[in-house]
Amino acid sequence: MSMTMTDTATLDAKIRSVLHDHGRLNQDAQSITPETDLYQAGLTSHASVNVMLALEGQFDIEFPDQMLNRAVFSSVQAIRSALQELGAA
Amino acid sequence: MSPQPDSGPPPVRAAPQVRSGIDIVQISRIDESLKRFGGRFARRLFTLRERADSDQPSVLAPQRYALRFAAKEAALKAFDLAHEGINWRDIEVVPSEGGRCSLQLHGKAARLVDPTATSHICLSLSHDGDYAVALVVATCRDARAVDPH
């Protein structure tokens, strides 16, 4: 099932909220673009773990081992794709 | 003196290569994660043995978890595994004699770090104040020590 633009916007807003609370970015998580490189924006490996755990709690999912890599948490868009793949959308 | 048969130039032996990775972690932030996510943070990232080693005495738990987290991240860097999808529990810090710690690799991490090409993995841990640091150095017999594919 394809996502509507509203679904995508809602999901991105939830991801941004988690990034705001746990990502410790050096810029406002609410105003970054979906493509912004989160590591360039200050996301550390430890903060990415916090983001992952917060997303798992919020969406009641678990990231499998193969998704525990830098690319999955590199942008809002990448996180959104992973969440969609895990059926969180 | 009879001439020696021409055996050509001496064989070139590849010099051992060294791979290294370092990571620094703020202990208070690890403490924050332990409190914020309850047991989930510890269970997700650390083996049963690492949790047993870290939880007692509880006053040192944040420091011990921070050192182990830094070690795992340092190993991911040393072996260029950050893009591979490695379970953190597959990189385990185990105490050895004399109060030192060493690394044991399991699962996918062990499969990707070729034991026939990696001769030795050294781990050094340190902390001061609110910071924990880990350094992983591995000597490799050749450049194929890590074969992601």
Labels describing this entry:
heterodimer, A: 89 residues, mainly alpha, Non-ribosomal Peptide Synthetase Peptidyl Carrier Protein, Chain A, 3 helices, 48% helix, B: 149 residues, alpha+beta, Ribosomal Protein L22, Chain A, 3-stranded antiparallel beta sheet, two-stranded antiparallel ribbon, 5 helices, 33% helix
Record field, number of beta strands of chain A:
0
Arithmetic mean of pLDDT of chain B = 87
The separation of the N and C termini of chain A measures: 10 Å
* Number of individual domains of chain A: 1
What's the total helix number of chain A? Answer: 3
What is the rounded Rg of chain A?
Answer: 12 Å
Determine the strand fraction of chain B and express it as a percent band: 25-35%
Q: Helical proportion of chain A? A: 40-55%
CATH architecture label of chain B: Alpha-Beta Complex
CATH topology of chain A: Non-ribosomal Peptide Synthetase Peptidyl Carrier Protein, Chain A
Average of the residue pLDDT scores of chain A: 92
Head-to-tail CA distance between termini of chain B: 54 Å
- Helical content class of chain B: 25-40%
Quick one: how many beta strands of chain B?
5
